[in-house]
Amino acid sequence: MSSSQNRPSKEAAELVRIIQGFVESQSLYVAADLGIADYLAHGSITAEELAKRIGAHPDALARLLRALVAFGIISCAGEDGFGLTATGQLLRSDVPGSLRTTIRFLAGPWFWQAWGNLSHSVRTAEPAFDHSWGMPVFEYWERHPDLSKIHDDAMEGLTTLASAAILASYDFSQFRTLVDVGGGNGSFLAAALGRHSHLVGNLADLPHVVSHADRVLHNAGVADRCKVISCDFFESVPPGGDAYVLKGVIHDWDDARATMILRNCHRAMNPSATLLLLERVLPARPEIEAAPEYIADLTMLVVSPGGRERTQAEFQKLVESAGFEFTAVKRSGGLLDIVEARKS
Length: 344
Fold this sequence. Notes:
This protein has 18 helices and twelve strands.
């Protein structure tokens, strides 16, 4: 029998790669959590020296670094040194577009344990997060402010990635007052106001969430054009805007609660005001190229209280059920697309 016949098929090798994907994600998490890239930012260093600085076992750390070389994150430098690849630079804390906190959030123990109970969600349609931690995800963040900070910083990083594409592909200059519902710490609204000097904004979210907004708005130089409003979007949202943006909000909720949020927006909006949902829009039929969107959809199944990613037809049905006229889905070319509707 030839050696080629002993090798696994291409299909088998791909399945094994997928099965072992958790090894890569946890390796990245440990690298991000230990801040390895920050220590490699100014030149190569040996595993032994790095271990002294971060308080790790030299041999065990060397084995992690070798794996990170194979994953394209770390590079070999000299005889026994390690440096950063272009991809690895994104694990640094001090670079624009850093993904360090995003990695710590997405691969952290709060989600890691929940994903271990995916079968619970598939069998029951209940969030595995609640099953794993004994409480809903939003309550978890509220009870753990130190971990909530990781969540908020990660959302800020993901917003930075998405905002440029959204703002480049949609004309926000047509509006005067932009209301960001569930806008977190204001990262998207700050970017929009920074791009359009005539815009004024209202940032609306829960009190413990918007309490972090002042830093973001002041750093962006737009605090004087933005009002920060504490609210619960299941009860009401600020009135008077001619455009209402909900970024990554609707996918957190089932249709009933998503409709409740949208109806509250509808009641608050001026006549003919515009609704903009910044969300992932799934293809009408599953596509291999859309794998990131389906990963996001499974994440909603595992983590959120009934949340899901939706197709264009599902978004149209949802906004129309809340009294809006669906107008279009506009692709941004980035992480999120724009579902546009108007108050009818």
